[in-house]
Amino acid sequence: MERTLSIVKPDGVEKNVIGEVISRFEKSGLNIIALKRVKLTKSDAEGFYTVHKERPFFGSLTDFMSRGPVVVMVLEGEDAISKVREIMGATNPQEAAEGTIRKDFASNIEENTVHGSDSPESADFEINYFFNALEIGG
Ligand code: CMP
User: Fold this and answer.
1) Using one digit for the tens of pLDDT, what is the confidence trace for 56-65?
2) Cα of 36 to ligand 1 centre, how many Å?
3) 56-71 burial code (b ≥16 CB/10 A, e <16)
4) Annotated catalytic residue: which of 114, 115, 123, 131?
């Protein structure tokens, strides 16, 4: 059993595909064990994406992630991290495989609809960034 964090980003919320994203995760057999809709401040987004703080796109990415509400969730299941990444597709929607979330809904490499943790270490950091122990499991 593995846990991962996923986010429906502001463009996904604006496009009204929260349910579509959740449905694709559920159909793959993953269980949602925590879920909430939140509006990040610029500083919240900077803290979440701190690993990217030296990247040229950091300012633009954190503006985007704080421009409107997002839906954050913890998914649990076998190989949850790689399963979510497969369902999301490549970061750049132009390179994403057919049938993936980013291929179907993302606008561009930044406004790419969904986020998923890329390793057990980042999943741990990201889950704890948004959820406390009381909010997980239920
Ligand atoms: P995500 O998987 O959330 O991880 C980091 C995010 O930065 C990524 O999705 C994109 O939203 C964004 N990103 C990654 N590479 C670029 C890039 N070259 N230009 C702009 N945004 C990027």
Assistant:
1) 999 999 999 9
2) 22
3) eebeebbebbbbeebb
4) 115
Beta-bridge mates of residue 8? 71, 114
Predicted TM-score (pTM) of this structure: 0.97
Query: Residue 84: which residues within 8 A CB-CB, separation 6 or more?
Result: 4, 6, 25, 30, 75, 116, 117
**Cβ(128)–Cβ(95) below 8 Å:** no
Q: 119 with 81: CB under 8 angstroms?
A: yes
- Please list, in sequence order, all residues whose beta carbon lies within 8 angstroms of the beta carbon of residue 75, skipping any fewer than 6 positions away: 3, 4, 5, 6, 25, 30, 31, 32, 33, 84
* Confidence class for position 98, pLDDT limits 50, 70, 90: very high
Q: Tell me, yes or no, if 52 is annotated catalytic.
A: no
Answer whether 57 contacts ligand 1 (Cβ < 6 A): yes
